[in-house]
Amino acid sequence: MLSGFERHQFDGEHSLYSSVLPRELRLSGQAFEELWSLHPVEYDEIVMYGRDVKTPRWQQAFGIDYHFSGTVYKALPVSPLLQPLLDWSRGVVTKELNGILLNWYDGSKGHYIGKHRDSIKNMVTGSPIVTISFGEERTFRLRPWRQTSFQDFPVLDGTVIVMPYDTNLAWTHEVPTRAKRQGRRISVTIRAFVS
Question: What residue ranges do the domains of the chain occupy?
Answer without folding.
Answer: 6-191
